[in-house]
Amino acid sequence: MAAWFSDHAFEGLKNIIPAYSSLTVIYDPFLVKTLYQPDSTVYDWVKQLLQTAFEHSDDISNRAVKRHQVPVCYEGIYAPDLGSMAASLKLPEEEIIRIHASTLYRVFMIGFLPGFAYLGTVDAQIAFPRKPQPAPVMAGSVGIAGKQTGIYPLNSPGGWNIIGRIPMKMFDPNAKEPVWMNPGDEVQFCPVSVREFEMQQ
Amino acid sequence: MSLTIIKPGLSDTIQDTGRFGQAHLGINAGGAMDPYAAGVANMLAGNNQCEAVLEIHFPGPQILFEQNALISITGGDFTPMLNDEPLPLWRPVVVRKNTVLHFNKLQDGARCYLAIHGGFCVKPWLGSYSTNLKAGAGGHQGRRLEKGDELTFRENTVYFAGLLKEGRELQVLNWRVNIRRVYEDPHEICFTPGNEFKELCPNSQEALLENNFIIHPYSDRMGYRLKGAVLKRKEENEMVSSGVNFGTMQLLPDGQLIILMADHQTTGGYPRIGHVITAHLPKLAQLRPGDNIQFRCVDQQTAEDLLYSQQQELVILQRACHDHLNELVC
What we know:
The complex is a heterodimer.
Chain A: H1 2-7, E1 13-18, E2 23-27, H2 29-36, H3 42-61, E3 67-73, H4 82-89, H5 93-102, E4 104-110, E5 117-120, E6 135-137, E7 141-145, E8 148-151, E9 156-158, E10 161-165, E11 186-192, H6 194-200
Parallel strand pairs in A: 3-11
Antiparallel strand pairs in A: 1-2, 4-5, 4-11, 5-8, 6-9, 7-8, 7-10
Chain B: E1 2-7, E2 13-15, H1 35-44, E3 53-57, E4 62-65, E5 69-77, E6 80-82, E7 85-86, E8 92-95, E9 100-103, E10 108-116, E11 150-152, E12 170-172, H2 180-183, E13 188-193, H3 202-210, E14 212-215, E15 223-227, E16 242-243, E17 248-251, E18 257-260, E19 267-268, E20 272-276, H4 281-285, E21 292-297, H5 300-329
Parallel strand pairs in B: 13-21
Antiparallel strand pairs in B: 1-4, 1-11, 2-3, 3-10, 4-9, 5-8, 5-10, 6-7, 6-9, 8-12, 13-20, 14-15, 14-21, 15-18, 16-19, 17-18, 17-20
Helix pairs in contact in B: 1-5
């Protein structure tokens, strides 16, 4: 549906936010009313477009999906919560890593911070609740919250349990595309050593 | 052709009408908290509505004008002074080179806007001049203004010097704006019901409409936390996150409301009780911690009609300001 809106943008369309089970359309009611002069409220006019987008979403859904191979270092200081998770889940750390890196994830939504990608679905064996209190998290950290996994784009307080870190930036305001992941993309994590991680940084 | 920050205020940032088309990447719109005041400041200064302005909170900054300039200050009343002379709000004012703008006392409102004829020379980021503090991008180096920062004007405003009478530091130009309608009944905030409004218990729905809510001190450009009647839902089920907007009223787990403001996150997982109507965001943005809010529920048609008439007046104002200025310089 989001793709349909990108192809059929109207004047006054300000933002399209796809999330897990919703699509939010933000629009400028004044511009729409002035330019398209709908008989109904602008709200109903946009709602009708959403209905059309829904009906046509199948036509576009088989569009090529981008797949990202993302290196993750699951070791040492880059995985501060892996030990406690392993103890709690009664699973060896290697097994958590293996399970986390063997699933092909989908970007369900980007939100919270610029470039914070919510990925799923995490294998039930390693699903893990959030921390009771948020703790400082470094940019690039890969965390788990329930059945979601995600990557912190910036240093930030966060409640997710951190099991690794990626060497590249999720968000770079100076880049041509500040965020290179998009909702709907696929992500495959590949474990790398501390040495490889630091070389790629 | 610039101004210099002699002393920074509490939080002075460059803002405009917002950054759009990036919310799906987690990059929010941002922009002026009171878009009406920011837009009018621009028009009075002879700009279009989208130009970059300076958003100022109290205590305000001290600003040295290094050049004669046509400016306008709108929004909250912090008693702006040019050297020792009061500077009127909501008016176009020519100020003399080497004068200092400062703000004496918080009279009314929560933020004010300074527009300069021609706008500030700042680089747009993703199509907007607004400062995104979290991303450290946009505006002036992605941050609040600091001591010694110099903001260059895009246009040479030297030709306004002729309007300054000898021995005077400022000259107020003779057109004004009637803003009464936008800010009247400052505490009455209208909303349209959100997706989860009906999930509220019937007595919580009543409580929302019948009680006053107070803006909590822990309120900022990201959101206004409210303190008031505890609202309960019929069922306390967890929700999945979805997109949210400037004005979205979310119900926090402790039964209190938060209204998302200009720097809100793009997505949220709390129940959406309502959405403050766009026409009332300007007056909401001028309320401060400790102020009261009385909510009133309206339908889409009412919300759109109010916004439409507000925006129509702006279109007329834009034209009028343009004509006045043309007459003056021709």
